[in-house]
Amino acid sequence: MASLLASIVQWLRSLLFSKHLEICVVGLNAAGKTSLVNVLASGQFSAEMVPTVGFNMRKVQSGNTTIKVWDIGGQPRFRNMWERYCRGVSAIVFVVDSAVPLPREGAVQSSGGAGGATTTDPSDPSTSWQVATEELHALVARPMLAGLPLLVLATKNDVKGAASAEDVIRIMRLETIANREVSCYSISSKVQTNIDVTLRWLCARSPAGAR
User: Does 31 belong to an annotated binding site?
Assistant: First the structure.
């Protein structure tokens, strides 16, 4: 009888103190979004990863917190879907590939000038930093997403020469994003660097008992 009562109390406590939230993971294709989601959900990393076409949804359990994760494709044809899936979530997670070489000085310019044109060198792989920056700033400028916490994750920091969190903050002009919480971590899904920090950040964005 006592064990039955204890089980009931434990069950009620799990209901009362459980946390539920949704997040949306976006970023350019091949940035490492799906690898990150798989590691969060199962702790397993695979070097062979099929690019996400459209979107995937996974559930991540961390302690008493259940996280519903939307993983949205990063190819150009899917980027107009980002805002739709980000509406109403607890946080936006923007993933960038920190193993991509940083822009050469003067090789990539910020949007601006007449007509808001952007000057890039298409032969320079680092131009993906410019594209990622523009897509991120365009996304957070959407009125429907105002105030949502933003976590920028620089993946693949196990690669020699990968950009640091400080590099990402500078290159992507994160300090200019106002009126919302903005955080940036350098992580690796392969060796699971800062995955625990990422989970703690996400779990802290959910009110107790929210569904």
Answer: yes
3-state secondary structure of 62: strand
* Residue 29 is assigned to a ligand binding site: yes
The reply to whether 28 sits in an annotated binding site is: yes
Cβ contact 202:23 at 8 Å: yes
For the chain, what is the total number of helices (H) and then of strands (E)?
6, 6
Tell me: the pLDDT tens digits for 129-184?
999 999 999 999 999 999 999 999 999 999 999 999 999 999 999 999 999 999 99
CA distances from 70 to 99, 119, 190 (A): 24, 32, 20
| Predicted TM-score (pTM) of this structure | 0.81
**Domain ranges for the chain:** 11-203
32 is in an annotated binding site: yes
Is 52 marked as binding a ligand? yes
Q: Is 47 annotated as a binding residue?
A: no
Class of domain 11-203 as given by CATH: alpha beta
| DSSP H or E segment with residue 186 | strand 182-186
Phi first, then psi, for residue 84 (nearest 5°) are: -60, -45
